[in-house]
Amino acid sequence: MGGVKPRVIEQLPETHVFVDWEILVRVLQNMLLNAFEHTDPGRSVRLGLACSDNGNFSFSVWNHKPVVEPMRNRIFQRHFSSRREPGRGQGTYAIKLLGEDFLGGQISFKTSDTGTTFYLNLCLK
């Protein structure tokens, strides 16, 4: 990731958010790590943030690879891993557990031939 340079696409209004920062960072780290692990060299990963007037925030992480059909229903299961190498299979499970049970948000994903996006939606009001 040495050559990756962040770009600001859109400026958001200054907003004060009260959330457990450490847990939020852990969820976003896991979302980004999973995206980078499933991205071919030279391809991009996108991190997004959208906020609405009613206090909803949506973080998103996109990469270019779709999730294959057999894995879609198991993606948030504990000990499930899509990698061929040995792994613990805790990434998406932790995203779901921390994002929903500890932050009170909603974790979801959408996948198609153009890629996969994972979402953390938080209602902070």
Could you characterize the architecture of this molecule?
This protein has 125 residues and is of the alpha+beta class. 26% of the residues lie in helices and 25% in strands. It contains three helices and four strands; from the N terminus they run αββααββ. A hairpin with a 2-residue loop joins strand 3 and strand 4. The protein is globular. The termini are far apart.
How would you summarize this macromolecular structure in one to three sentences?
The chain is of the alpha+beta class and 125 residues long.
C-alpha Rg, in Å?
Answer: 15 Å
Structural class: alpha+beta
Strand content: 15-25%
What is the number of helical segments per DSSP (H or I, 4+ residues)?
A: 3
Shape: globular
Give the N-terminus to C-terminus distance in angstroms.
36 Å
Please report the first level of CATH classification, the CATH class. Answer: Alpha Beta
Which regions are unreliable across 5 or more consecutive residues at pLDDT < 50? none
Q: Mean pLDDT, rounded to whole units?
A: 83
The number of distinct structural domains comes to 1
CATH-assigned fold name: Heat Shock Protein 90
The largest sheet has its strands arranged as 1-2-4-3
CATH superfamily: Histidine kinase-like ATPase, C-terminal domain
**How would a textbook summarize the main sheet?**
4 strands, antiparallel
Number of strands: 4
Helix/strand order, N-terminal first:
HEEHHEE
Percentage of residues in helical conformation? 25-40%
